[in-house]
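How a chain folds remains the central question behind the approach discussed here. For one protein, we set the task of working out the structure tokens from the amino acid sequence alone. The sequence in question and its structure tokens are set out directly beneath this paragraph.

_____
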Amino acid sequence: MAMLRNGGRPGGQSRSSALWGTGNNDDSRSNALWGKGGRGLVTLMAAVLVLGIPLAASAGGDDNTGPETQTYVSSGMLANASKHPDKTIHVIVTANAGDLPKSRILDKTLGSVDRRLGLIDGIALDLRANRLDQLAKIPGLTITPDAPAHPTGSTFSSKQLWVPNTGIDKLWNAPVANSTKTQSDLAVPAIAVVDSGVDTSKAADFGARVVQQVNLTTLPNNSPGDGRGHGTFVAGIAAGQAAGYAGASPRSNIVSLDVMDDTGTARTSDVIAAAQWILDNKDKYNIKVANFSLHASNSSSFTHDPLDKAVEKLWFSGVTVVAAAGNYGYANAPSGVKYAPGNDPFVITVGAADMDGNPSPNNDTAPSWSAYG
């Protein structure tokens, strides 16, 4: 089913699905990129999770014998550090190969570990900006900002045109292949929502299906539940069940991972910690889908970005990762998908659709502000 960009140009976009799927357990990043890291067909719609939130991201090093021993520093970090040498900065440090030399890093930088990031064998480090150049001289590191995140979409009500448009309602009780059962007879997978939290008082939407709430933000001013509203909105699209406003999978349990304060700001290391929590608890809660309606505020290659590395770990452990494309598109040209985690080739990246006020998919367009390309 093709979707047209504003102006009627075919975009060749297809609606993918994310609530059921398969995947191997090979979490090797190199295998995933260049080898056998295949992923089975995902069989239920996820293209309705369209809102995004931007997150907070040259090379250096004293050994240039190979790419694994060179140190990569995100563009602009060293220049900014030289302009504000006394400022405390927050960075994420990972090793290009092998174990991260944590003792050497701490000795060189006189920084303090804010959080250990076992999922990507990294650390979130707080240090004075004038120490960054010393850190960059340690070979074999990737250094990126532990950057902030902010909402890119408003919490609006939906007329639910997307339900007949996508045909998702036809799957709720569809027959299971080679069985007398229907989808409603199956154990429905849980959806992890990495966002601003979920307001469980919305009983009409969620009932008692928010089975776990985890607060992982290290920022102050974070109210219990959802102090921003964005996570509740996203959870409703994914799994709401209010009359007339059912979500994509209204029987799914929801696991809420709150990584944002009440202003809608997060730190990249907190989002990575959420990915780690999902990996550690996916079997306990039957988590098959993880939704990240957020994106980094600094563009980077997925080969260097620590958040991309984290969501790839989830994908290759059997968790379908859905990420926002972002709301920074252009009217007359592809914007590209520049930011993690939506820029990663091993996640389902979702943009917005303009349905022109009717449920038929034949006249759908992608609004100009929705990133693509």
The CA atoms of residues 112 and 126 lie 5 Å apart. Residues 1-53, 56-64, 154-158 have pLDDT under 50 and may be disordered.
